[in-house]
UniProtKB/TrEMBL annotation, chains A, B:
Residues 24-158 form the HTH marR-type domain. This is MarR family transcriptional regulator. InterPro entries: HTH_MarR-typ (IPR000835), MarR/SlyA-like (IPR039422), WH-like_DNA-bd_sf (IPR036388), WH_DNA-bd_sf (IPR036390). It comes from the Bacteria. Pfam families: MarR.
Length: 165, 165
DNA sequence: CCCAAATATTTTATGCTTGAAATAAATGTC
DNA sequence: GACATTTATTTCAAGCATAAAATATTTGGG
């Protein structure tokens, strides 16, 4: 007698789906729900407190880690968004005085983007406040659960990393 | 002697942050990373296989659960997006013949949106395929980890539900 | 050297998303 | 019954995001 609920009768009609499949779908919907909720909260705070946005914060965060600057293509692959997307966000940050585009020696196609002094200063301040917001939004998350969450999500992420069949 | 790592020296400079705060930030960044990766994969599949989008799928899913239809305001609160957002998505789905707007008796401000017969049929098929995609993308997620994930994310979600101070 | 292919980036068209303003209709209050 | 308020929805402006096409430049044969 089959006690394993994840193994189904092979005669099961193909329009029914397994329990494990349903559990994974629920997990995905829950991830989506939480990430949208948190993203919405952070977007609102960014707008009200900084007059800025999450995508701009992300770009500045990447550049803050690479003080020598990054190419547009490096930025878009680090942030996992399209090239054209980064163009627009960088344009706005340049207008705001947060970023500069520097030509690259020996390659006139490319340019390097880096934080201005003002951009560095602003980001350093904002990053601290941002971390506080996140910690508050996740204040019910224990260190233990945070670790469990990260471990589980890492396995999911790695399975989907760059192995497009 | 203080053994609790989450309680810090009150003289700690305010530009340093606690370990638990850093762990929560890492957890949030990991949630974001996974949800963007999965969302991107699903978007691409939706586009290639169905010639459709995730937001349209979400609207149809909500209406599939409420066969009698929903008001625009019910839809936007169920999906946790703005009113104006739903207007545009519904417009496109009406053009595609998936949805109809039905006037509400005794209230000429409101209208009820519901799936057409074609919309119901299309969604039923797509939902099965969609569940298969999710199960495949999450195939490294055991039933046990799925439950753990859901439990942890639920506590985070509930903490942030509707208590804007 | 010439030119096809590859690379780096921007532009374009389309759609999603928000917040705020506008429109329209219903409701409550004097 | 007039009218201020509330409720339901749409419209608008701006920004984010993608895929695909366009532009510009570099590189690698022949």
């Amino acid at each position: 007698m089959n006690m394993d609920k994840t193994v189904r009768d092979p005669d099961m009609p193909h329009n029914e789906t397994s329990d494990i499949s349903k559990a994974r779908l629920r997990a995905w919907l829950q991830i989506l729900k939480v990430s949208r909720k948190i993203e919405g909260e952070l977007r609102e705070k960014m707008r009200l407190e900084f007059g800025s946005t999450l995508p701009r914060f992300d770009v500045m965060a990447a550049l803050y880690r690479s003080r020598d600057g990054m190419r547009m293509s490096e930025l878009s692959s680090a942030l996992m968004v399209s090239n054209g997307n980064v163009t627009g966000i960088v344009d706005r940050l340049v207008t705001e005085g947060m970023l500069v585009r520097v030509p690259v020696e020996n390659d006139r196609r490319a340019s390097i983007v880096r934080l201005t002094e003002a951009g560095e200063k602003d980001f350093a301040e904002r990053a601290l406040v941002h971390e506080g917001w996140v910690s508050e939004l996740f204040s019910d998350l224990s260190a233990h659960d945070a670790d469990a969450l990260i471990r589980i999500l890492r396995t999911v992420y790695h399975h989907n990393e760059a192995h497009h069949d």
